[in-house]
Structures are given as C-alpha cells and as structure tokens.
Amino acid sequence: MFYIFCPYCDERREEEEFHPSGQAHITRPADPENCSDEEWGDYLFFRDNPRGIHHELWVHRLGCRKFFNITRDTTTYEILETYPMGERPTVTAERAGVRQEQGVQTADGGWQTVGARPENSKLNEETPS
Amino acid sequence: MERYSGFGLFKHALSHHENWQRHWRNPTPKKRYDVIIVGGGGHGLATAWYLAKEFGITNVAVIEKGWLGGGNTARNTTIVRSNYLWDEAAQLYNHSLDLWKGLSQDLNYNVMFSQRGVLNLAHTLQDMRDVQRRVNANRLNGIDSEVVTPERIKEIEPALDTSKRARYPIMGASWQQSAGVARHDAVAWGFARGADSLGVDLLQNTEVTGFRIRDGKVLGVHTNRGDIEANTVGCVAAGNSGVLANMAGLKLPLESHPLQALVSEPLKPILNTVTMSNHVHGYCSQSDKGDLVIGAGIDGYLGYGQRGSFPTVEHTLQAIVEMFPMFSRVRMNRQWGGIVDTCPDACPILSKTKVKGLYFNCGWGTGGFKATPGSGHVFAASLAKGEMHPIAAPFSIDRFNTGALIDEHGAAGVAH
Ligand SMILES: Cc1cc2nc3c(=O)[nH]c(=O)nc-3n(C[C@H](O)[C@H](O)[C@H](O)COP(=O)(O)OP(=O)(O)OC[C@H]3O[C@@H](n4cnc5c(N)ncnc54)[C@H](O)[C@@H]3O)c2cc1C
Ligand SMILES: [Zn+2]
C-alpha cells in the first residue's frame, strides 16, 4: 500500500485517495494541424514503460482533486518524490536518489520481481543437444 | 518421446511410477539456430511447436530467463472464449478456440480443456445493448453466442444472485457455450514437451540482454550464457516486451501493469460455468480441484513487481460477493500477480518491426491465455514464411500510426 505525499495538501495520505493517470510530462503537439501520422501516433499511444525510474501523473481524486507528479521505481515500487504540476523532477534515471524532505513513500515488504527462483540443481543438469 | 496412454499408466504402475521419462532435455545452447524465440511462456512454446510440426523448422531455440511457463502463463485464470466484437479479433480468437478442441490429442498431453461455457453479465441498459451488439457480431462471424435472460442465467448458474434485490441487478448476459477453461501449466508443458521431442532446444535460466543488429538486420541475441546467432528472432515476452524492444532501439505502445488473481480454499462443486461481469468488475470459476478462481482489474500504475496491491484485492472480492453473496465467508488461500502488457486498443501486436528478421508477439495484456494455440500457430506461420499470416496481419504495430485500431475495450472490459 502506498502512502503518498500530496504536494498540495502537504501531507501523506493512503493510496486509495489517489488515482494514477499514466506518464507525466507529455506535451501536446504545438502545431496539431501539421503533425504527421507518425507524430500523432506517438503522442497518443506510445509511452515510456521502463523497468526502473518512471515519472507519472497522479490525481488526488478523493482529496484536493489536483493533479501532480510522482517519480517512482517500477520494480521496487518506491516513490522517490512527488512534485506539483509545472515542476521538473529532481530524481531521474541519471540522477538517482530521493527527495530528502519527503523520504521514501512505500509500505514495508519487498516486491518480488520477474525471473529467477532458487534452482533445483538436478533439473538444471545439462544434457547434450 | 514416450507417448502417454492408459496402457502406459498401467505399465509404469508396475514399477511404482519411478521410471517416467523427463518431459524435455536441458540442452547446451548451440552457436546458431534458424529461429530464436525469446520468452518460454505458452505463446513462445506454442510458436516453437508449430514451427517444428507444421513448418518443418526444427533448428529452433526458445530462450527463457526463468523457468518454462513461469510468467503470465502460470499466473492466469485460464478463461478461454472467442466472443470478441470486431472481425479481426473474432477470427484470431476463434482460430485459437478451434485449435483448443483437438489440443490434448495433438500434443498427447491432457490440457484439461473444459468447455463449460462463459457468461458475460449485463447490469444496465447500456450493458444489454452492448451484449446484443456483440452477440449479433459474433453470430455473423460464426461464433456460438446468445443473449440469455435472468431466468436462463439462474438455470445455468444457480449460485449467482439473479434477484432484483441485488445492488446491480442482472438484466441478462451473453452466453458462449463453447467457451471454458484449461489447465494453464499443462498447456505450457504440453507444448514444451512436444517442441523438445521435435528437436527444439528449450534454454531455461537464459536471459536475453541485447540484440545483435547490423545494417537494420537482426543477427542474433546476447544472453547471460553468451551470444547466440539467428536471422529470425521472435520476441514473445508479455510484460517485459517493452524492455526487449528498448534493447533493439524500438518503442512499443505498451504499458506493463500488475494483474492479480486469487484462489479460495477448495470447496465441493458449486459453480458450473465461468461468470464475468464488466460492470461490477470481477469474474469467477471453479477449478477441478475445487478452489474458486477469482480475478478482476489491473493495478492502475506501471509495475514490474509480480504482486498486486491490497486495494485491488478488496475491490475484487467486493465484486465477487455482489455476484455470489453465498461466498462472503469463503476463505482465500493464495493471491499472486503477473505483469500484463496492455495495449491501447486492448488487442495484441503480432508484427514485423523496423529491424529485418525481428518480430514481436505481445500486447495480449489481460487476456492472452485463450489465444495461446492460435497465436503460436499464426506467429509460427509468419516467422516461417517471412510474411505475416492473414489472421495476424491486422495486428501490425503500424496500426497505431495509421489509425486502424481494433477497439476491443467493449468486449474486453474484464478482459480475461
Ligand atoms: C492474473 C492474470 C489473470 C489472467 N487471466 C486470463 C484469463 O482468464 N484468460 C486469458 O485468456 N488470459 C488471461 N491472462 C493473460 C494471459 O496470462 C497472458 O496474456 C498470456 O499467458 C501470455 O502468454 P505469454 O506466453 O505471451 O507470456 P508469459 O507466459 O508471461 O511468457 C513470457 C516469458 O518471457 C520471459 N522473458 C521475459 N523477458 C525475457 C528475456 N529478456 N529473456 C528471456 N526470457 C524473457 C518471461 O520470463 C516469461 O516466462 C491473465 C493474466 C494474469 C496475470
Ligand atoms: Zn491533495
């Protein structure tokens, strides 16, 4: 369960008051009349989908009802910062960290990620192809 | 390959079932293959099997970073149906349904395909209009589908609350009798065993970490066990497809979300069929073991942790209790999540890419288990011929720029 710091309400609230709305910082084409199909398609449908740091738009739906941004790790689910509309993130894939005054905003417990498990060595013995 | 039969079972009983053959080899990777499939889930394994069996291409490797069928194939709620709205989708899922019917025989492996039917409930007037429209479209496409009344629903599934007292009274449903469920693990294992017996190398614990691309052509893959060459590479990696595309310098219109499921403690037989509701947003069936198999929506944010959030568990069970009030005191046994690759039009991507020889089969999102044999079949045909199979062609990645979307959100609201 996330415990999210709303930059407008200036306090932490439970996940259920919020709603995620996809990737943040997507700018509408400046000259829509002259966009190519390629540009329209990219604007409408193609999104970043990283394993790792992601900037996303959320709305404090059952609180102040304002939109704001979250920087979150999509594998550990740690929220590394929240910041109001119009601001740029301070934590990025290149510049890791967490916003000091907010701290990490996530519940306890690790998140299991895709892939490996403790292997049964016998099953892994190689047989000639 | 040792064929399974009643006689074989008897024979092995004489030696206390201690001498059964392994399902597949665990080979050392070769330097070069004709075709590499990245991702050893149901779809990847089915692709390999059809490549070998129908198209005679046996020099094939399936590269899987974990264990076979441990991704969404092992985590899904196994609903198989084909009552999709649009012609393109109807053809794809119905092609798959046709293959399901003979699959256990084809594979000599019991995939426990059970055509117990699927109800898609309607709770509002608009739901009813959508159901009628979809049923009409299905019938035009030769898919068995009918609109049923609450009285008929009560006959099909007595445990459902069809009374007027419900908070969202059931007004009707679509009913596909030929739909049902199958045993997810058996599907992966059956295809794997079949592919292996025809010479396909199944490389487990092998992770693709990059692609070798020169002059716009794929030459092979980098893995944690060294480079492997092939001029044809098909990526079938579900929730991790975007990560793979990134390695090849491509972008896909996919978002990876956790989708979870839960099962209850085993109960005596109580459910006859599969019941799904878009409106109260949940669905439920009963496995042969007796547990209720339950699912609902995705977690709304991107995530690669294979576990769902608690608020979603709560919403899911609210929906189940709304539909089946008698389940309110059933205890849940296990809960887990998979990472689904959702696509903007709720349809998959089966496509060539800008890199010659590199193909993607992904975007199945919350509802690709039902398509496992069909997807594998048309994808194998496409890889074998170098041209997309006619059933696969409309699912090209180009549709997001040309605008030829196949909008299945209506049929796929609870998409599983
Ligand atoms: C909870 C849940 C319920 C669902 N319910 C239904 C349902 O009722 N009906 C239905 O039709 N569908 C359902 N689905 C969807 C269905 O499970 C999937 O669409 C389908 O199983 C996808 O199969 P796949 O083989 O493409 O993917 P997976 O089975 O996920 O296989 C992909 C494989 O690729 C591997 N891989 C990824 N990256 C790499 C790499 N770099 N190198 C090597 N290997 C890699 C992964 O380890 C994985 O094993 C559900 C999904 C979930 C999560
Ligand atoms: Zn707020």
Automatic annotation (TrEMBL), chain A:
One Pfam match: SoxD
Region called Disordered, residue ranges: 94-129
InterPro entries membership: SoxD (IPR006279), SoxD_sf (IPR038561)
Feature: compositional bias, Basic and acidic residues: 119-129
NCBIfam families attached to this UniProt entry: soxD
The protein's name in its UniProt record: Sarcosine oxidase subunit delta
Native source organism of the sequence: Kushneria aurantia
UniProtKB/TrEMBL annotation, chain B:
Chief place of localization: cytoplasm
EC number(s) stated in the UniProt entry for this protein: 1.5.3.24
Cofactors (names): FAD; FMN
Compartments where located: Cytoplasm
Reactions the enzyme catalyzes: sarcosine + O2 + H2O = formaldehyde + glycine + H2O2; sarcosine + (6S)-5,6,7,8-tetrahydrofolate + O2 = (6R)-5,10-methylene-5,6,7,8-tetrahydrofolate + glycine + H2O2
SUPFAM superfamilies: FAD/NAD(P)-binding domain (SSF51905)
Record's keyword annotation contains Nucleotide-binding: yes
Keywords: Cytoplasm, FAD, Flavoprotein, FMN, Nucleotide-binding, Oxidoreductase
InterPro entries per the UniProt record, alphabetical: FAD-dep_OxRdtase, FAD/NAD-bd_sf, Rhodanese-like_dom, SoxB
Class in the EC hierarchy, top level: oxidoreductase
Domain Rhodanese intervals: 35-79
Family that this chain belongs to: Belongs to the SoxB family.
Name of this chain's protein: Sarcosine oxidase subunit beta
Native source organism of the sequence: Kushneria aurantia
